[in-house]
Amino acid sequence: MRTSSVPLCGELVSGHPLWTSGTTETPLYVTVQVNGNTTTTGLEIGAFVDGECRATATTASYLGGTAYRLRVWGTSDDLNKTITLKAFYNNIVYRFTTTQTFDGETSTHDVPVTLYLDQVMGFTVTDPINIEASLPAVRDLSSDVSITYDEVNRKNKSVVETEFTYTWTPAAAIMTVEGNTLTATAITPPDGITVTLNVAGENYGSNVAVKQYTFETSTQVIVVEPVIAVTSITLSPTTIEANVGDNYNAKIQELVTITVLPNNASNKNWNANVDYVNSTATETDNNITGPGVLKVIISSESDPSVTATLTINVPTPVSFNYPAELTLSKLHSTAVAFTNFEGDNFDKSLITITFADATCGLPCASATMSDDTGLNWNFTGLYVGDYTYQVNYDGQAMESTASGSAGILHIPAEVALNNAGWDWISLYAYQSGQTNYALTDGGDYLAWMNTDTNNKIIEIRSQTALLYNDATWGFIGDVTELSPEGGMYKVKAAYENASSCIINLGSSCVPISSTAAVYNTIQTGYTWISYPLETATTIAETQLATTAQTGDKIIGKTTSAEYNGTAWLPTDFALDPGKGYIYYTSGAGGFIPNFDAPTPAGVKGERVVTTQTQTISEPSPWQYDASPFADNMPVVAALEGLETGERFSIGAFVGDECRGEGKVVDGNIFIINVAGKSGELVRFRLYNKATGEFTDLDQSLIYAAQHGSLRAPVALSGSGVVDGIRTMEQPTQDSETTYNLAGQKVGRNFRGIIIRNGQKFVK
Which domain holds residue 476? Predict the structure, then answer.
């Protein structure tokens, strides 16, 4: 703030070099507005080049008495330099950011420059003022004062150049103040010295009236020890790794030790700034956004010229796509490949796949890695329906091939047939939608049922109807559709490819709860029933005992079970989805089999079969194929002379051909399942698991619907144990008839224990 009326530019002495020959001028016209009105009195206008006053005017005498004419003098060296304008009004100097260029024009510039005196709103001062320099320390205190303006109404951004008066508590040989300059000659106490700044004056801003203001504030001036400069920065290590998405500053703090020397440097703080010219990685707001190399300059806060360079290697993030939509099977695994792979440092163990839960809370599908690449998998459906799944890598969601972060799974209900013989099948039951599977299309049977001689359905039997594929006449019979209400179907097929023998019932219908099953009411005698549920269970885990009568039997294609009045035997008899069964009762019937578990907890009302501890089962000594035969004859037999049959199994034979086997179910009681045809003669052979001995049993049976029961088992007994195993020393002729231990004929390439001419050999 100016405190006297000394002219803004002082006195321009006539002997000034600019008034000698060879000078030129740039004439300017200037108007000044205060409160929106042109002011012509009380003003001094100055023009400055390189900080030197080159022209001044105190009277507005041009352009109708509203403008000040300034003749800005200079030489050819001043061409194109900036002319800064200042105004001195009411004890305040205004410097304007609106400037002109010295162009050496001698013609009149008659377009006036308008200067607006912007209103000062207040002042702020640094507190405390810290001086860090060698003594004596000199500081321009005006740099510690900030002026605030009426920013809303500012026109040309004038800047007030204010001079201050100072008062302070005297302290000998510490500091002096002249004008705005403070000179310190000694270190001040920790609390410094209090300096009071005083400002007073008038300011014409946008207000109607002149604003009178005074300003007074105090600050602390503290002179500290001389600054000790930083001389070096060292990094350990000089190269680190980070990933896209990391905050590189956080990584530096975590992984790098930064040493600033000397140890007694006044300011040991450092800054980290990216060297964009030499970086190939990208970042935004300190977060790494792209792979490559990020060069970071570590510089001293007090001396930015002291630096060290840190290299951050950013690998390409692992990414790949997975199928947006898949149809899975519950019968076999589906190969799934992840595509469009890119990335560094790939670790296949970091891949996780999450499947949507079925209603039981278990995943709808399973997945296993199929090779070492980590990009090829086998998926298997577990529960029928439409679901979502997500593939993640190291916790990050990968995108599907449809650029989404989730894929869709369709898991249909499928019923598989034996592709080379007979099978017993049934359909799932549904809560809504289609429940029947039509075998005809527009009156014609479906093409897949009769592709060619080697790929066709040969016969379908229900309990009451038949469909036969005649070589001459085609399909003959009454079966035109399959349904859960139709119970079980016996199907004979001949297909070269097993995958051709699958009935796809779709994934859009939800299988019913077992408690809602209302199919296949049991009649006296034999009832062909469907198993309508989508999950397998053992007979012991069902509620079939709540409706069964003593002597009731459930017969499968190769297995069977009987109810003894308190439990079903064998307890591990399994009911499988898509398979059919025959229910036998000698009672009145009239009930519906209840397949539900005692405590329903599974998907769509099904019971979840928990994993139990399994024992290692011995390989069966009986080799047979039941697929050529449509029927299964269950035989319940008692092995005489034994209290328990645990160490025995029984094979059933028609001639030299094995047709089935039996296992002990209770004490010495066996249930033997025999594949065959009505009227065939069936004989039995006993195998001792402990000794490896075979015994031909004396009894035989004629093939029929069934023989024996738990109450009245067929009695089996025998003698003539075959023994005496020795190692074959000399090869026998290939023409000699050779048998395995089960009494079956085997070929020349068979390996194991064989029987020739009544003797046992190891081959």
Answer: 414-504
